[in-house]
Amino acid sequence: MEHITTEQVRIHIGDIALLGNLALPEAASGLVLFAHGSGSSRHSVRSREVASMLNRMGLGTLLFDLLTTGEAVWMSRRFDIALLGERLKAATVAVALLARERHLRLGYFGASMGAAAAIRAAAEPPPHMRIDAVVSRGGRVDLAGHEALCQMQAPTLMIVGEADPVVLKLSAHATAWMPCEKRLEVIPGASHLFEEPGALEQVGKLAGKWFCQHFSAAAQTAPRGQVR
Known about the structure:
Layout: E1 4-13, E2 16-25, E3 30-35, H1 45-56, E4 60-64, H2 75-78, H3 81-94, H4 96-102, E5 105-111, H5 113-123, E6 133-137, H6 146-151, E7 156-161, H7 165-175, E8 182-187, H8 199-219
Parallel strand pairs: 3-4, 3-5, 5-6, 6-7, 7-8
Antiparallel strand pairs: 1-2, 2-4
């Protein structure tokens, strides 16, 4: 099995520091930044399981807290999509040097509310950077807002459980506004949290395939880690 380097990192934004867990396979082709849902953190069991699957497919992952411990207690912060999107962009800037040095493509994996933040950040990425793929797991991509959806260029995969009718309907409506390549995958029998046997494994496989496919395609057309 390919060696995977793991380390805890700090992402400094102004006068705060966000903690994260970085995992990087030796021959990684890309790095996927995770944006968790409201009330969750880098310790999310579901996010860690998906990240582990991506690592085994040769993809690096960064799971980090979008909010400090003090901020996370405030509902207004946990549902502030604009703030969460800016935090994700700040984390993207923080890994820019690593991406250039290791020739890594960049992608976002967003769950629930984190998916809206991922869409926001990908629609208007940091200067001179590009996001090559986005995956949403049971995500409220509609909350990213009409403007962000209309600006999306990164290929986007939305994975929704069959037994999650509200998110399924909202995701289907959101795709109509997105000019990018997009796909809506429905996991049979799965609920919003994908707790059913085998459901999360399907999420990991679909996400990994999407990232690998689009990272490979992007590598043929643009310098890695850079972006426009």
